[in-house]
Design goal:
This protein has 301 residues and is α/β, with parallel strands linked by helices. 43% of the residues lie in helices and 16% in strands. The protein contains eleven helices and eleven strands. Strands 1-6-7-2 form a four-stranded mixed β-sheet. A three-stranded mixed β-sheet has the order 9-10-11.
């Protein structure tokens, strides 16, 4: 049996599959992605978590595999044996067309390698080559460790929290977080910061570093390294605002309390109260009000 974490600290030898696929602490723990989900719907979090004895296997997609490939090249400089590259257009359904590639493919599937096409491997390599040409981005991802796990107990509730930073510099003066995207412009990345709650993850990473290393890092120490997936693979750095970090910490606190309450009660509710009031979206209300004021619609109160 694989040993469980019993002491807060940094752990270097926890495989990514184990980190996401099973409980790694001696009592239920939750990650940044878990906090985001439980804050919206505890029932969905429970269904997808290690707490569910009948949880379905995690689904993989080409986009997820591409993301893993980019991170692999960023961290090691190349795609290692955990990846298997097939020709562009390869399909296991067309055995005759790809007959010469099938034995190696089936062997890769057997050992659970990540299968990507040649153009995806080339894109991952090209992206990281471009990132390494960016002086500041290159410096941020040097002299450190990739994919280490930080685990600690929340002081208020006592539940285990955990994070897995892309890269943890030895000096820990600045903490980088790599994000591949379609558009790295300020306006687009600001939307992504909101849509994907990146600021909540950043707040939890900083909290973990403070708890594990005793370092009171501020938001200005957190740098998002955004890079576009399409050539010329533009790289843009963004420094997290202190206000965004504070809001992220607030949302995390609410989610941690929900997690603790669910663990204590054994109840994992849906989106809210049994019956929630609901109204039209604000934009639709504005549109209908404008129509009424223009005499195009009569409001039947």
């Amino acid at each position: 049996m694989t040993s469980l974490i019993t002491t807060p600290g940094i752990y270097y030898d926890i495989p990514i599959e184990r980190y996401h696929g099973e409980e790694i602490c001696d009592s239920p723990s939750i990650s940044s992605s878990g906090l985001k989900l439980i804050d919206v719907c505890p029932r969905k979090y429970w269904y997808q978590s290690a707490l569910n004895p009948n949880r379905a296997p995690r689904k993989t997609t080409r986009a997820l595999n591409m993301g893993k490939a980019i991170h692999e090249v960023l961290e090691t400089g190349r795609l290692g044996p955990s990846f298997h590259i097939v020709p562009d257009g390869f399909s296991e359904a067309h055995h005759k067309k790809w007959a010469e590639h099938m034995p190696a493919y089936l062997e890769a599937v057997e050992r659970r390698a990540i299968v990507i096409q040649q153009k995806e491997a080339d894109t991952a390599t090209a992206m990281i080559e471009e990132l390494r040409r960016h002086e500041l981005a290159d410096a941020l991802f040097s002299n450190g460790v990739a994919e280490a796990t930080l685990a600690w107990k929340d002081k208020e509730t006592g539940v285990w929290l955990r994070v897995r930073p892309d890269w943890l510099p030895n000096a820990r003066l600045y903490i980088p977080d790599y994000k591949s995207c379609l558009d790295a412009s300020p306006a687009a990345f600001s939307r992504a910061l909101d849509n994907y709650d990146y600021y909540c993850s950043a707040a939890l990473y900083l909290e973990g570093i403070r708890e594990v290393f005793g370092e009171p890092l501020l938001a200005r120490n957190f740098i998002f390294v955004a890079q576009e997936k399409e050539p010329p693979h533009v790289v843009q750095l963004y420094q997290l605002d202190e206000g965004a970090r504070a809001w992220g910490a607030s949302q995390n606190r609410r989610a941690i309390r929900k997690f603790d309450t669910c663990l204590q009660t054994g109840k994992w509710p849906g989106y809210g109260r049994p019956v929630e009031p609901i109204d039209l979206p604000v934009w639709r209300q504005r549109d209908l009000t404008a129509q009424a004021e223009a005499g195009l619609l009569e409001y039947a109160a």
